[in-house]
């Protein structure tokens, strides 16, 4: 239906991108787009407005196409959902037996139906796992039965493709399929086992030649994982759904206010169409009718641009009946919010440390690197610096006995490198070391009623400090500062640390603030804050995830808008696949009821 339309537009525009074609339009008139709505674009469109626009004569005269589903994000969340929307159905494999007898009995009751057509709430009832989302726990136990007990049982699912159950969709991503995995350091190892990183239908080891580094570790490198995801999309024939190098700048719901009535949070003086209030909250006394495509559902307008050859930016606009947020959580590093955090030697990514080491800007004679944080990213930075013989000052707010430290949740045999860092955090602390006059120790300044200079002593390790870990070689040029926080950074390359009873200043060469990341939902109204479980706080994967229906993953405050993965608290690939199951099940049931499933198995709009 839209295929001929797309070809015509692409010929005029002359796109030469590597991804599949899209219909590109800029504020074109149509039954659902009013000129006044164009003028009232949100601030998020400022970035797109700065991009080169198409000639007016190149624009199609009809309104942009309506896509049943647009998925924003092409990481493992988006890939898995695309797989389920492409007609792949999970059925109980009758040749297997699930170790949970209650769940197995439930599965037997409707074994002739795919899981996506069954009652997910009924199947999830009583299951326990390491996700707050019950469907995530359900899908995980179907794919990896009893994995938390150390077993590697085969999945109890078999996959069949039904092309008549295909839902047309687009997956928009900033790079090639795989998301943030392409940007990670290739030599690191994943926290999860390689088999837990796999997606339905293709065994991870089959694409990595069954590599095993040693008997204690089946973990993978980011390079292996990103290659797996790229190949997965090709082997499953999903390429036609993916549009690479695409940046979304605005997602807004199209709503129509009745003529002559004002609308809160947005005047309606010259037209009756209002774009993107982020819900109908705050419209008491005003009648608001959401624009729809005749099927009873509101429409979303998705805008952005695609980067094609020669760094050309081609803007686009399309309508979607449903939008899925699968953007992950690595967009915006969390900041300390202290004085001097914008100085040029303060960084928020471990890649900046690797770059400084590779360019030989740091060495064993440099002033120490200050690393802030007590998570795995901070531990990776500590290992990177210590392995390069660079001195480290490691600052973190928690006590070394805090039960929430991630290191306490990792088995020593699988994660020896992180337990090495934890041993240093416990035994090589600033308060526990013996004085030393070594000339190369970092300078410490204690600030009380007077200021006096003291040398930061080199830690002297006692045998008892590493009891039970005698075989682990620790790094002598590491000093930990538990229960400390950063007060400020100074332009003379000094940092001020606050302990329990004193302030200390140190001369440093570089700072890495690695205290986590938050999603960047700038393309939504108010950065999507109103979608959170606590709408008064920014969206945070740990502290304030998006509030969703537990079995459909539809946003509680926005029908037709879905969220999955880290945005709803599922930070591990092993569990984010449950979001794909919940969303696919919901959409299949709704569209089947409306008679909107595609019988020819193809995307008829690209």
Task: Outline the structure in words.
This is Oxidative stress-induced growth inhibitor 2 isoform X1. Residues 259-279 are annotated as: Disordered. The chain has 606 residues and is an alpha/beta fold. Helices cover 21% and strands 19% of the residues. It contains 13 helices and 23 strands. The chain has helices at residues 3-13, 35-39, 46-49, 76-85, 101-109, 120-124, 134-143, 204-207, 222-235, 350-358, 376-387, 416-427, 573-594; strands at 66-72, 88-92, 157-161, 169-172, 242-243, 246-257, 273-275, 288-290, 300-307, 313-325, 332-333, 346-347, 369-372, 392-396, 443-447, 451-455, 478-482, 485-490, 494-498, 503-507, 510-513, 517-518, 561-563. The strands form 5 sheets. Strands 1, 4, 5, 6, 7, 8, 9, 10 and 23 form a 9-stranded mixed sheet that branches. Strand 9 (300-307) and strand 10 (313-325) form a beta hairpin. Helix 7 packs across helix 13 (573-594). The protein is globular, with a radius of gyration of 27 Å. The chain starts with a helix and ends in a 12-residue tail after the last helix. Mean pLDDT is 75; it is low at 1-61, 256-289 and 433-472.
Report the C-alpha radius of gyration, rounded.
27 Å
Helix content: 10-25%
Please count the helical segments: 13
The stretches of 5 or more residues where confidence is low (pLDDT under 50) are 1-61, 256-289, 433-472
Q: What's the helix and strand layout?
A:
Elements: H1 3-13, H2 35-39, H3 46-49, E1 66-72, H4 76-85, E2 88-92, H5 101-109, H6 120-124, H7 134-143, E3 157-161, E4 169-172, H8 204-207, H9 222-235, E5 242-243, E6 246-257, E7 273-275, E8 288-290, E9 300-307, E10 313-325, E11 332-333, E12 346-347, H10 350-358, E13 369-372, H11 376-387, E14 392-396, H12 416-427, E15 443-447, E16 451-455, E17 478-482, E18 485-490, E19 494-498, E20 503-507, E21 510-513, E22 517-518, E23 561-563, H13 573-594
Parallel strand pairs: 1-4, 1-10, 4-5, 10-23, 12-21, 13-14, 13-21, 14-17
Antiparallel strand pairs: 2-3, 6-7, 6-8, 6-9, 9-10, 11-22, 15-16, 15-20, 18-19, 19-20
